[in-house]
Each structure stands twice: as structure tokens, then as C-alpha cells.
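User: Could you go from structure to sequence for me? I need the amino acid at each position, not a summary. C-alpha cells:
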């Protein structure tokens, strides 16, 4: 089929006829013929029909028939949903290697002869076509994330950049795995104000905070704004122990801001405490947590600014 399509292109058949025949060759591998168990065991997997389609795309790209190149690329990307992002990249890399290094003839004669039907003379087109596939993959996955989590363009792009830092190079690793998400953002050396603000919104949209009843808190950054907390600590020169109520007003990557509720005027000021102990009872959870945070100062509007802790203990479960 591939050889026939190349031949009728050179003979300049009607473009609609050519297009219908391209559609025919794209139907041959539906559904995709992959054995994921083999890949999990480290065995190279591949779909010979996909290899032939890939080589055909290189031919059309060389000939400048961008419509057919796009058709084949879109069909190849159907495997993305089946394989997942990281596995799709692995299979694409295998196909890249086969196309790039495969010779015109097999290394041994067989009863079918020794002609390599996967061979392509258009190796100079591989990089451009592969980049097209990668760009299309990026667009698809970013759009899916935007739709699923109601992300803005900036938030989706920022999450994509974060996902390139994962071992798997996979967007799902940062949108669906809170541990990976926390690890990556803490490893980032510098974040500008726009990125810091985006992280606050992203955490909320991904439900990587205490509003999620299934999330076990591991860092104080995960306490959702609006959460009431019990505050205790020692204040003043005589180290008088205080117990107060407060509410989380804002929680960013660097600081948490809280305001007090009903502090008695005759008590020592809270800003004399070097460290506060917070008892957190998220309203959507049955777990009660505790963490100790350093007091970093006060803001212009009277809120208290606290540093963060990656040590959050479970002290009770209702």
C-alpha cells in the first residue's frame, strides 16, 4: 500500500483519490497493535503498520504534501490515549531509531526475501516530523489539562514546564501526583511573583490542599485558605503559654498569613513568640494535624506571616 501511494503521487492522480487511499492505510492498525506487558518487562514493542505509516509521512513531507503529513501525524497520535505520555515517547523513540538506522536490506535472507519494507530513504525528514508529533502531543495534553482542571493558559503552560522536570517527562505526574508536585516546586530555585501566584491557584484547582478529603497533609503549604486553626505558643518574657484561634487568610509557597480571632487585650502580643504550634482540623477531613511554624513578622494589614514546615503530624482521627 505504501509503495502504491508513492507511485500514484508521482503519477499525479486526483488529490481526492489520493486522500481516500491515505485514509485506507490509516485504518489498518485500528485498534493499535501494542502489547504493553512486553514494554513493562523491558521488551521493545512496536507496531509494524505504524512504522510503515511513519515512513510514508516522511515521504509526503519530502514531497511537500503537508495535508497528508498532518493526516498521518494525527492518526499516530491516537496511540497517545492508549499508551500514555511517557510510553508514547518511548515507542516514538523506538520508531525514530528504526527509521534512522534501518538499512535497505535485512541482515539475512528469509523465505520472504531480504528487502526491508520499513526502510526509508528520507532520513533527513525524521527530525522535523518527530518534532511535529511532539508539538502536537504538547498541544493535546495541555488542552486536556485546561479542560479538566479549568486552568488558564498561563497555569497550563507553567504546569507543562514543571512536568518536564519529572523523571517520566509526563504531565500526569504533576497533575495527579501530589508528592511529585511538591518535590518539583520545592526544587525550583527561583520563582517570580506571577509563578508564585499561579501556584496558589493551581494547588486549589488540582485539589492539592486540605479541601480534598482524600489528601493526607505532608506540608503546611497544603492547608487551604479559610481553614480555622488553634494556635498555641509561649509569649513574653515570662514565657506565658497562649492558646488562640486563628484563620488562614493566604497560603503561598513561601509564607502563610493568618489573622487572629478574638484575642484578649491583656495577653502578651503574639509577635513575641518565635514559633507557633498550629492544630488543624480540615472541615472536609476526619484527621487532625499539628505543625510548628516560625513567626516571620506581620504584614501591613495586621496579619501574621509564618514560615512553612515540611513536618506535619497526625495527632488524632475522628
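Assistant: Here is the amino acid at each position, in order:
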Amino acid at each position: 500500500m505504501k509503495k502504491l501511494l508513492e507511485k500514484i503521487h508521482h503519477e499525479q492522480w486526483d488529490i481526492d483519490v489520493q486522500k481516500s487511499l491515505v485514509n485506507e492505510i490509516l485504518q489498518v492498525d485500528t485498534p493499535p497493535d501494542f502489547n504493553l506487558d512486553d514494554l513493562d518487562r523491558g521488551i521493545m514493542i512496536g507496531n509494524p503498520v505504524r512504522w510503515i505509516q511513519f515512513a510514508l509521512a516522511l515521504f509526503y513531507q519530502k514531497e511537500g504534501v503537508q495535508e497528508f503529513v498532518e493526516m498521518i501525524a494525527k492518526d499516530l497520535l491516537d496511540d497517545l490515549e492508549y499508551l500514555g505520555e511517557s510510553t508514547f515517547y518511548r515507542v516514538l523513540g523506538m520508531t525514530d531509531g528504526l527509521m534512522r538506522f534501518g538499512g535497505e536490506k535485512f541482515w539475512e535472507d528469509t523465505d520472504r526475501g531480504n528487502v526491508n519494507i520499513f526502510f526509508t530513504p528520507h532520513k533527513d525528514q525524521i527530525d522535523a516530523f518527530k518534532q511535529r508529533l511532539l508539538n502536537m502531543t504538547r498541544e493535546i495534553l495541555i488542552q486536556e489539562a485546561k479542560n479538566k482542571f479549568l486552568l488558564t493558559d498561563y497555569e497550563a503552560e507553567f504546569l507543562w514546564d514543571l512536568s518536564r522536570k519529572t523523571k517520566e517527562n509526563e504531565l500526569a505526574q504533576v497533575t495527579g501526583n501530589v508528592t511529585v508536585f511538591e518535590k518539583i516546586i520545592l526544587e525550583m530555585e527561583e520563582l517570580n511573583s506571577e509563578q508564585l501566584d499561579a501556584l496558589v491557584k493551581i494547588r486549589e484547582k488540582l485539589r492539592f490542599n486540605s479541601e480534598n478529603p482524600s489528601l493526607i497533609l505532608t506540608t503546611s503549604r497544603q492547608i487551604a485558605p479559610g481553614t480555622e486553626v488553634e494556635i498555641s505558643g509561649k509569649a513574653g518574657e515570662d514565657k506565658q503559654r497562649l492558646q488562640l484561634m486563628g484563620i488562614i487568610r493566604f497560603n503561598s509557597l513561601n509564607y502563610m498569613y493568618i489573622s487572629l480571632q478574638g484575642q484578649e487585650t491583656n495577653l502578651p502580643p503574639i509577635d513575641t513568640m518565635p514559633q507557633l504550634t498550629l492544630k488543624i482540623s480540615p472541615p472536609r477531613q476526619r484527621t487532625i494535624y499539628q505543625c510548628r511554624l516560625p513567626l516571620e513578622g506581620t504584614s501591613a494589614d495586621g496579619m501574621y506571616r509564618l514560615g512553612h514546615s515540611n513536618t506535619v503530624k497526625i495527632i488524632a482521627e475522628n
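One structural detail worth keeping in mind: The CA atoms of residues 106 and 114 lie 5 Å apart.
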